[in-house]
Design brief:
The chain is of the alpha+beta class. It is 58% helix and 15% strand. A hairpin with a 6-residue loop joins strand 3 and strand 4. Keywords: Membrane, Transmembrane, Transmembrane helix.
Length: 131
């Protein structure tokens, strides 16, 4: 049986990070559907599970690899945004965070210095804020 499954999967994509995310998300949606008895969650969970199996058994490996790459790019972007928020929250008593009015670059200035003139290192715009 193992040998038959191995031969069947030759030339097929298999699982990756996106498939793991899709399967976990489908299980969560199906559990929510069981608890809430809303059929929309059932249909969404089943659709995600079907898409997960479609990707697993696909022979278009380059397309699935590209989808996985895009998933990890989005995951890294969201993760870095949350890490940035976490860092700002941890440093909220030491620093103030402002945006440059010209180029919208995020700037960090120390607290407790009174009204200071801030220079944006990217575009050179100077503006006055309370620190």
């Amino acid at each position: 049986m193992r040998e038959k499954l191995r031969r069947f999967m030759i030339g097929r994509y298999g699982t990756d990070g996106l498939n793991q995310f899709l399967s976990i998300a489908s299980l969560v949606l199906l559990l929510i559907a069981i608890v809430s008895r809303v059929s929309l969650f059932t249909w969404l969970g089943v659709a995600l599970l079907v898409f997960c199996y479609y990707r697993t058994f696909s022979r278009n490996i380059s397309k699935r690899t590209e989808e996985n790459y895009k998933f990890y790019t989005l995951k890294d972007r969201v993760g870095s945004k949350f890490r940035s928020w976490k860092e700002q929250w941890a440093n909220r008593k030491v620093y103030h965070y402002y945006r440059c009015p010209q180029c919208h670059q995020k700037l960090r200035v120390p607290r407790g210095r009174g009204r200071i003139q801030i220079s944006c290192p990217r575009c050179g715009t100077q503006f006055i804020k309370k620190s």
